[in-house]
């Protein structure tokens, strides 16, 4: 019960910190979460959560890296492979070796092996920690892609170097040959295992689909469990790098996802939703835990009168400056060599400003915290691990230092991000809709002409709706007034055709009264601008409850009469609107109303013609998928021409996936 209570408290704190972050937008959310965790730990002294390093890596690092790898643009990963591998491996080793000697020189009480351990665990970067800052400023894409790409690998290299340094402290023995061999084994076997397991998991998924197991919830759960399974197999069974295995499997998944996105839209929508919740929660909990552990790490040192508190602060500042400084020097030198020696002159000449931004973006975070908290208390000779509290304090201090420095200086060096221009997004969506229309025209044949033109008409209506949203405030107000006027006219026509239908058909008085009430409610909603959804749903429930007292054949007869009546009324109104639009000077507003009534007619037409609906539904479903493919092609073309960013393209694809999911649900269900 205590564990469950603690988990619930952490989740509530995640929500609270994000609310605070909304109002204190100049601070990154990670920094706020560390602060709230620190305050909460001081106020609630009995609150403790202890997580072993292996479990922490499994529960937090595995899913986070899998998500990052699966959503990292493969083209950028390949294009920047030299920079990413250089930062993820060589910069980590350089920071470990040089940093170890610097730390030992600066704080002689820390043994050299322990200094190497601290330097190694300070080498991995954490792009998640800087995401809050990146939302407010325009950090160059190639820099953010670099730090995200290197974080996929440097977590593993940093942890391996850290573990060997700790082992040297604990056992008093270290072999460079053995360490190098083990590192290569863990890296390459982990990568190979990740590829094999990634392919195997996808084969299993599609084999289950072939056997008829198509439940989207089942397949979404299988996808969510994949990184945990792969990490566990790599670490526990083959003693390879679970981190590298998870990243390799994520890249395989990203490749398969690109090829099958059209076939599993509903599954993808559900999975993406679950992932977003998980990533949101895990990121928050990680930095809360960091804040919660700081007081215990600080208590021993502050209470120790032999260690001057100001000197501790100077150690943190010096060490933080070192890790950022060595990253700056490496970046400037590496980029210059790449530009001149390797003739890689596609990008601009490396600048000092870019090197500074790259170093500041290298904030330390999750892996540093996980590793340093895993330090053993005793060595094999039963001696206390040398300067354990000081090492933990220095690591925590560097995390806070890099976060604060990035928060202060990155906005000064980068452009502020303007709010997304809705008109630009609107234009991109219009191009997607146009791509869908073009694809539908290509698929038209004698057999499906009617269905094709019906779907094209729907997309044309969507174009009109999107264009209407591009107006300025004055134009939009005028448009809304005209739309309100036309909808009221259409509702009055509904009353006229209701009376007309009742003149030649015998309709129960109760049903006539209910439809009159429905028209009146929609009329009030149009005038007031409110949909009154709750009140309408309550009335619908009451109406169904009253009908439940009728006999079975009476209920069926009443339902059929209602369907026929609605179909007649809406068809007549639509017919009048189509006649009216031919003489309309500005048909845009009327197109909006026509689209609304076409949806209503189609809904009741489907109920009337159930016998022939299966064939129609199949044709519509196939054509809708073709239209979705046309939209995806339009996105790819915009991305290729650099007319949209990777982030914008991702949002547009999510919009298309949502549309596809709705289409499939509408026709299949």
TrEMBL record:
<feature type="transmembrane region" description="Helical">
    <location>
        <begin position="7"/>
        <end position="35"/>
    </location>
</feature>
<feature type="transmembrane region" description="Helical">
    <location>
        <begin position="113"/>
        <end position="134"/>
    </location>
</feature>
<keyword id="KW-0175">Coiled coil</keyword>
<comment type="similarity">
    <text>Belongs to the monovalent cation:proton antiporter 1 (CPA1) transporter (TC 2.A.36) family.</text>
</comment>
<keyword id="KW-0050">Antiport</keyword>
<feature type="transmembrane region" description="Helical">
    <location>
        <begin position="84"/>
        <end position="107"/>
    </location>
</feature>
<feature type="coiled-coil region">
    <location>
        <begin position="466"/>
        <end position="496"/>
    </location>
</feature>
<feature type="transmembrane region" description="Helical">
    <location>
        <begin position="355"/>
        <end position="378"/>
    </location>
</feature>
<dbReference type="InterPro" id="IPR018422">
    <property type="entry name" value="Cation/H_exchanger_CPA1"/>
</dbReference>
<keyword id="KW-0739">Sodium transport</keyword>
<keyword id="KW-0915">Sodium</keyword>
<feature type="transmembrane region" description="Helical">
    <location>
        <begin position="216"/>
        <end position="234"/>
    </location>
</feature>
<feature type="transmembrane region" description="Helical">
    <location>
        <begin position="390"/>
        <end position="413"/>
    </location>
</feature>
<protein>
    <submittedName>
        <fullName>Sodium:proton antiporter</fullName>
    </submittedName>
</protein>
<feature type="transmembrane region" description="Helical">
    <location>
        <begin position="182"/>
        <end position="204"/>
    </location>
</feature>
<dbReference type="Pfam" id="PF00999">
    <property type="entry name" value="Na_H_Exchanger"/>
</dbReference>
<keyword id="KW-0812">Transmembrane</keyword>
<dbReference type="InterPro" id="IPR006153">
    <property type="entry name" value="Cation/H_exchanger_TM"/>
</dbReference>
<feature type="transmembrane region" description="Helical">
    <location>
        <begin position="310"/>
        <end position="334"/>
    </location>
</feature>
<keyword id="KW-1133">Transmembrane helix</keyword>
<dbReference type="InterPro" id="IPR004705">
    <property type="entry name" value="Cation/H_exchanger_CPA1_bac"/>
</dbReference>
<feature type="domain" description="Cation/H+ exchanger transmembrane">
    <location>
        <begin position="12"/>
        <end position="413"/>
    </location>
</feature>
<keyword id="KW-1003">Cell membrane</keyword>
<comment type="function">
    <text>Na(+)/H(+) antiporter that extrudes sodium in exchange for external protons.</text>
</comment>
<keyword id="KW-0406">Ion transport</keyword>
<keyword id="KW-0472">Membrane</keyword>
<keyword id="KW-0813">Transport</keyword>
<feature type="transmembrane region" description="Helical">
    <location>
        <begin position="155"/>
        <end position="176"/>
    </location>
</feature>
<feature type="transmembrane region" description="Helical">
    <location>
        <begin position="277"/>
        <end position="298"/>
    </location>
</feature>
<feature type="transmembrane region" description="Helical">
    <location>
        <begin position="55"/>
        <end position="72"/>
    </location>
</feature>
<feature type="transmembrane region" description="Helical">
    <location>
        <begin position="240"/>
        <end position="256"/>
    </location>
</feature>
């Amino acid at each position: 019960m205590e564990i469950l209570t603690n988990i619930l408290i952490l989740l509530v704190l995640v929500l609270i910190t994000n609310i605070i972050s909304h109002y204190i937008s100049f601070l990154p959310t990670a920094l706020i979460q560390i602060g709230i965790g620190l305050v909460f730990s001081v106020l609630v002294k009995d609150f403790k959560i202890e997580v072993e390093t292996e479990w922490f890596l499994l529960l937090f690092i595995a899913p986070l890296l899998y998500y990052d790898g699966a959503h990292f643009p493969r083209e950028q990963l390949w294009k920047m492979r030299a920079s990413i591998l250089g930062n993820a491996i060589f910069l980590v080793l350089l920071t470990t070796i040089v940093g170890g000697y610097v730390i030992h020189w600066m704080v002689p009480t820390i043994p050299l092996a322990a200094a190497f351990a601290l330097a190694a665990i300070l080498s991995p970067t954490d792009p998640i920690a800087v995401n809050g800052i990146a939302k407010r400023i325009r950090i160059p894409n190639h820099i953010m892609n670099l730090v995200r790409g290197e974080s996929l690998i440097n977590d593993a290299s940093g942890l391996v170097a850290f573990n060997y340094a700790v082992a040297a402290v604990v056992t008093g023995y270290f072999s460079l040959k053995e360490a190098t061999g083990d590192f290569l084994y863990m890296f390459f076997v982990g990568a190979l295992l990740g590829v094999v397991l990634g392919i195997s998991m996808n084969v299993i998924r599609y084999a289950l689909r072939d056997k008829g197991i198509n439940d989207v919830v089942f397949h979404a759960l299988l996808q969510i469990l994949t990184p945990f399974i792969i990490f566990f197999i790599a670490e526990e069974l083959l003693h390879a790098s679970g981190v590298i295995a998870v990243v390799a499997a994520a890249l395989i998944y990203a490749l398969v996802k690109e090829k099958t996105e059209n076939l599993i839209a509903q599954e993808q929508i559900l999975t993406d939703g679950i992932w977003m919740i998980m990533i949101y929660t895990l990121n928050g909990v990680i930095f809360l835990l960091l804040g919660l552990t700081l007081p215990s790490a600080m208590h021993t040192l502050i209470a120790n009168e032999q260690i001057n508190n100001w000197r501790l602060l100077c150690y943190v500042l010096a060490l933080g400056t070192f890790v950022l400084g060595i990253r700056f020097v490496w970046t400037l030198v590496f980029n210059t060599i790449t530009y001149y020696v390797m003739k890689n002159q596609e990008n601009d000449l490396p600048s000092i400003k870019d090197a500074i931004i790259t170093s500041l973006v290298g904030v330390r975070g999750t892996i540093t915290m996980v590793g340093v908290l895993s330090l053993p208390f005793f060595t094999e000779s039963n001696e206390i691990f040398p300067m354990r509290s000081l090492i933990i304090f220095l690591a925590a201090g560097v995390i806070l230092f890099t976060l604060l420095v990035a928060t202060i200086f990155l906005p000064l060096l980068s452009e502020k991000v303007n709010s997304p221009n809705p008109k630009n997004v609107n234009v991109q969506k219009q191009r997607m809709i146009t791509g869908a229309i073009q694809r539908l025209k290509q698929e038209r044949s004698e057999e499906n002409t009617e269905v094709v033109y019906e779907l094209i008409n729907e997309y044309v209506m969507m174009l009109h709706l999107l264009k209407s949203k591009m107006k300025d405030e004055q134009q939009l107000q005028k448009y809304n007034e005209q739309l309100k006027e036309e909808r009221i006219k259409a509702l009055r026509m509904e009353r006229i055709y209701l009376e007309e239908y009742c003149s030649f058909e015998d309709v129960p008085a109760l049903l006539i009264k209910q439809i009159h009430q429905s028209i009146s409610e929609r009329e009030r909603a149009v005038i007031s601008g409110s949909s009154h959804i709750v009140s309408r749903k309550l009335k619908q429930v009451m109406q169904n409850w009253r009908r439940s007292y009728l006999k079975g054949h009476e209920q069926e007869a009443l339902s059929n009469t209602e369907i026929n009546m609605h179909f007649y009324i809406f068809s007549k109104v639509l017919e009048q609107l189509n006649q009216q639009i031919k003489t309309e000077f500005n048909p845009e507003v009327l197109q909006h109303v026509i689209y609304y009534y076409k949806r209503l007619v189609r809904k009741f037409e489907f109920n009337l013609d159930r016998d022939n609906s299966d064939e129609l539904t199949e044709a519509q479903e196939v054509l809708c998928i073709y239209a979705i493919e046309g939209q995806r092609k339009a996105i790819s073309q915009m991305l290729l021409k650099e007319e949209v960013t990777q982030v914008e393209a991702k949002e547009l694809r999510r919009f298309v996936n949502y549309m596809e999911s709705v289409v499939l649900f509408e026709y299949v269900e």
